[in-house]
UniProtKB/TrEMBL annotation:
This is Enoyl-CoA hydratase. Gene3D superfamilies: 2-enoyl-CoA Hydratase, Chain A, domain 1 (3.90.226.10). Keywords: Lipid metabolism, Lyase. Its EC number is 4.2.1.17. NCBIfam families: PRK07938.1. It comes from Kutzneria kofuensis. Belongs to the enoyl-CoA hydratase/isomerase family. InterPro entries: ClpP/crotonase-like_dom_sf (IPR029045), Enoyl-CoA_hydra/iso (IPR001753). The keyword Ion transport does not apply.
Amino acid sequence: MGISSSHTGSGVTMITIDYPPVNAVPVRGWFDLADELVAAGRRPDTHVVVLRAEGRGFCAGVDIKEIQRTEGFDALIGANRGCAAAFSAVYDCEVPVVAAVNGFCLGGGVGLVGNADIVVAATDATFGLPEVDRGALGAATHLARLVPPHLMRTLYYTARRISAEQLHHHGSVYEVVPPDKLDAAATALAEEIAAKDTRVIRCAKEALNGIDPQHVHRSYRYEQGFTFELNLSGVSDAARRAFLEG
């Protein structure tokens, strides 16, 4: 349970999220994930990272129960900083990151996937940001990398989910496969990239980040500022309490 990694002989490092029952990641987990991603990218024998999850869904975002049972704002600050660290680690990883998405991908899950280089998803995968229903904001930066601007706003305001097939239509999901074929499909794609000269691919990753029109680090931290405003006003606490009680 937690964050784990394994390395194949083909240059692929598999990093797995495993926090039963729904992969709601605690504060420590976000930092652990960031550490694993950074370490994998620095390994000379890692040419590609596959980010995957065990269980019913890829990621349900932050652990709201942890935030609610912690006095003061330490858990909230930790979750926000941890998410920022993990999202950045995906984006800044020295090698390409392939996200293999199963089941639900919500909140922080969208932050991870939106910063990945390639997305492969199972037919049962759905993506969404329930933030407005939880009295928070965030990861619109990353949803905007998956869908066009007006659709992003609709999904953000309504907290509706979008399917893997719909994202495939928009080109942000590369391939949609049956759930039992997900790991194999993501690994096959990763191995195709890993077989190339890693020196070239690492330069390509850095170059692509350098020409990216979206400054993902700054824009996400800007969003988080409004989450703190909502928390200080008491709006967020009431929304989280209603969600947990409901």
